[in-house]
């Protein structure tokens, strides 16, 4: 979790969803292929996202271990989870949108189960 998101994001009204805070409190942070990023990792990705996709207001929170996909909150729709294929050409980075973090978490856990069964 990034404790100090950019002021520009706060001015746009960004706050982490309570559901995300709950997941972190429960220490649900590693799902084999997906894992929650440390603050340092998330800050590094946030800086890169701002450079690569300046028109987007993305707050990264999780990374997929086997490719460049990252899970982010969009400042304009903070309840939804955006899957971004980082380093893709501008306009081709969007992979998927989940209605909320619970939908994303459910798929991450299901994938963990299927791949380890």
TrEMBL record:
Domain of life: Bacteria
Stored InterPro entries: Knr4/Smi1-like_sf (IPR037883)
SUPFAM superfamilies linked: SMI1/KNR4-like
This protein's name: Knr4/Smi1-like domain-containing protein
Organism: Lysinibacillus odysseyi 34hs-1 = NBRC 100172
């Amino acid at each position: 979790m990034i404790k100090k998101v950019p002021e520009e994001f706060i001015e746009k009204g960004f706050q982490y969803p309570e559901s995300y805070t709950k997941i972190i409190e429960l220490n649900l942070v590693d799902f084999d292929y997906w894992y929650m990023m440390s603050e340092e990792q998330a800050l590094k990705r946030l800086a890169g996202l701002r450079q690569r996709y300046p028109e987007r207001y993305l707050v990264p929170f999780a990374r997929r271990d086997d490719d460049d996909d990252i899970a982010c909150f969009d400042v304009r729709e903070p309840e939804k989870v955006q899957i971004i294929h980082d380093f893709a050409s501008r306009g081709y980075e969007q992979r998927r949108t989940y209605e909320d973090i619970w939908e994303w978490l459910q798929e991450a856990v299901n994938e963990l189960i299927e791949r380890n069964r």
